[in-house]
Amino acid sequence: MTRLMDCVRRVGLLIISTVFWVHLGSGSLAAQTDCVESNSPIESALPANVTEPQLVQKFAAAEDKVKQARAPYTVTRDVMIQTLNDSTPDGQWHEVAQISFDARGKPAENVTYSEVSTLRGIQLSEADKDDIRTFMPWIFTSDQVPEYKISYSGQQHVDDLDTYVFHVDPAKLEKNKRYFQGKIWIDSRDLQMVKLCGKSAELMHVKKHQSAEVRPTFVGYRQLVDGVWFPAYARVDDTLHFGVQSVHVREVVRFKNYRRTGGTVTSAKP
User: Fold this and answer.
1) What is the pLDDT of residue 103?
2) Whole-angstrom Cα distance, residue 149 to residue 157?
3) Is residue 145 within 8 Å of 171, Cβ to Cβ?
4) Could you give the CA distance from residue 203 to residue 27 in angstroms, rounded to a whole number?
């Protein structure tokens, strides 16, 4: 984002009891997005009879299957972004789009509703929109693994799921490419991602008299759809700092109403 002046397990949603308390405009949110804070400790030991590279290989192969399984579906993406003055919204932008995928999993979107932005102090950039399209519903497939440094953090119990936690950093920032940077949680049984927390990263060149873009931290969750963990929900609650100016931003992105092409809605309702 840039300154305006510059330009449950196996039954459905992973976080049904912990995330959907968010009500935009209610003024009653918990602490801002934090990828470290957790009520559950991390045990550093690897699972028995597997090495770290083998575990990465296994979950990446499972993510390949997630991408393949999602291809015949359409999904509704509902985005609400607000700027806040203390805890009171003073501007917003709302968009709804229908998303479909080709055989390779590449998305195509049809925007069905988009309101005029009244966001205060910031404006959305193409990178912000790419975060919504690409990284909030990120699927970490095997072809992306060589682009990242992936380190095993341990095992953690998260919302009734046993997970493996990894820290993910770009191996190298290359021009005109964007990456995820943060933590991912892998279901210990299905070996598919069920949660991620972090931000996008890229090689930035800031022009003279122009402020650098600031990327907010987001947390994303998945839900079971026909036995596969599909992206379901992402949120941002972050204060962005532009020199002496700070802007509090709240964002909720829902991926809902998964429907097989020519079929019926299969996603659970939160």
Assistant:
1) 81
2) 24
3) no
4) 35
- Assess contact for 81 and 253: CB atoms under 8 A: no
Q: Tally the residues of the chain.
A: 270
**Is 251 a domain residue?**
yes
pTM: 0.85
> CA nearest 229: which of 258, 201, 202, 209?
258
Cα dist. 202→112, 153, 188, 213 in Å? 30, 24, 30, 10
| Residues of the domain holding 205 | 2-26+42-260
In angstroms, the CA 259 to CA 215 distance is 31
The tally of domains found in the chain comes to 1
Reported confidence tier of residue 215, pLDDT bands at 50, 70, 90? confident
What the block records as the tokens of 65 is 């299957």
> Cα 234 to chain center, whole Å?
5
pLDDT tens profile 11-66: 444 543 333 333 344 333 445 677 876 668 999 999 999 999 999 999 999 999 99
Q: Does some domain include residue 91?
A: yes
Residue 111 pLDDT more than 90?
yes
Does 238 map to a domain?
Answer: yes
Let me know if residue 35 belongs to a domain.
no
